[in-house]
Amino acid sequence: MSAKRIVCLTEETTETLYLLGEQDRIVGISGYTVRPPEARSKPKVSAFINAKFDKILALEPDLVLTFSDLQADIAAELIRRGVTVLAFNQRSVAQILEMIETLANVVGVAEKGRQLVAKMESGMEAIRISASRFPIRPRVFFEEWNDPLISGIRWVEELIEIAGGSPVFPELRFQKNAPQRIVDPTTVIPKDPEVIIGSWCGVKVNKKTIRSRPGWSAISAVKKDHIYEIKSTYILQPGPAALTEGIMQLHTIFAHFNGMEVDSLLGRQFET
Predict the structure, then answer these.
(1) pLDDT class for 23, splitting at 50, 70, 90?
(2) Which of 84, 147, 163, 174 has the fewest other C-beta atoms within 10 Å?
(3) Contacts made by residues 80-83, CB under 8 angstroms, sequence distance 24+
């Protein structure tokens, strides 16, 4: 199969096809897509948990790409309407890389896929080596939502470790659904994270809100103002953005915590 008219209902598959140089195959995208910027000119046919089925069908796609159980109903309806659907469900760094290779195979550019994956693996390994120089691996609490408070998903926690930090709730990463990663704010206090990173999907992180949580004034990250934001498009999309820009932002934060500078050459590892 070498699909020629593809609709991508999440951003990470759109970005992957652009990085593979196969963007001309894309005929429709999610309205939430921001990477790469030039993709915004494509017809927008969905949000995240709903889609414009008639608009998708009008594009005559030979393949629609979806993600996770949250788009299962969309996938089922498209299949009932006779559309070929490929549903991804990557949750770890390894699975993200597998998604990239699989998509490359589907569109008939397997070698390009292998090269792209190798480049990302090399870049992440360079960051891992750089992080090994840090005198301190800070305790990190990553929150992907504020109310209720939700801890980081698996690929985010893995990237934190590669970039030089130590997640304070490592066991929660294996919970695939956000409700299973809800954290009682009072349980964060004894973990005493030294760095807090917020990525509230579509909402700007409010440091004042974080500081004002009952009892959080005793947390090291709050006392020493090591509270940061990484925009969700860079870290909460399980695709190329997280494995490049996302991990670089994490690494820069942990370097800053250690009073160190990041090698400017590191970021070039990911340039295409």
Answers:
(1) very high
(2) 147
(3) 81/53, 81/57, 83/56, 83/57
Owner of token pair 């206090």: 189
CA distance 37 to 39: 5
* 165, pLDDT greater than 80: yes
**Residue 243: alpha-carbon gap to chain centroid:** 8
Residue 257, both tokens: 């915590």
Angle at 172 between CA 46 and CA 189, to 5 degrees: 115
Share of the chain above pLDDT 70, in %: 96
Where b means 16+ CB within 10 Å and e means fewer, 157-196 reads: bbbbbbbbbbbbbeebbebeeeeebebebeebbeeebbbb
149 with 178: CB under 8 angstroms? no
Judge residue 91's burial from the number of C-beta atoms within 10 Å of its C-beta, 0-12 exposed, 13-18 middle, 19 or more buried.
middle
pLDDT, tens digit (0-9, with 9 covering 90-100), for 206-249:
999 999 999 999 999 999 999 999 999 999 999 999 999 999 99
Establish how many alpha carbons lie within 13 A of residue 218's alpha carbon, considering only the half-sphere containing its beta carbon. Answer: 10
Sorted by where each starts, the structural domains of the chain and their CATH numbers stand as: 6-89 (3.40.50.1980), 120-268 (3.40.50.1980)
What pLDDT does 2 receive? Answer: 78
- Gyration radius of the chain over CA positions: 19
